[in-house]
Amino acid sequence: MPKAVTGILVQCDASIKAIICKIDEENGNVFIHEDIDDETLLVHSKKLEELKQRLKDTLKDTVREAEESESE
């Protein structure tokens, strides 16, 4: 019997999806319900805001590291 789950459909480019999958893996797979295709994920609706914040922090750190390596 099919099982229904509630979630948010997230569409993004492949590089952002890879970062989201890494965040999910590092946190015990608590964010992603299902990996649908190269640019689409089904994310737990209750975890969306936390995932957004973690993604924002990760991107901020990545940009900061890139800027530091360019200035050397």
TrEMBL record:
Coiled-coil regions, chain positions: 41-72
Main location per the UniProt record: nucleus
Compartments (UniProt record): Nucleus
SMART domains: Tbf5
Keywords recorded for this protein, A-Z: Coiled coil, DNA damage, DNA repair, Nucleus, Transcription, Transcription regulation
PANTHER family the record matches: GENERAL TRANSCRIPTION FACTOR IIH SUBUNIT 5
Subunit details: Component of the 7-subunit TFIIH core complex.
Family to which the UniProt record says this protein belongs: Belongs to the TFB5 family.
Role noted for this protein: In NER, TFIIH acts by opening DNA around the lesion to allow the excision of the damaged oligonucleotide and its replacement by a new DNA fragment. In transcription, TFIIH has an essential role in transcription initiation. When the pre-initiation complex (PIC) has been established, TFIIH is required for promoter opening and promoter escape.
Name of the protein: General transcription and DNA repair factor IIH subunit TFB5
Naturally occurring in which organism (per UniProt): Neodothiora populina
Lineage: Eukaryota, Fungi, Dikarya, Ascomycota, Pezizomycotina
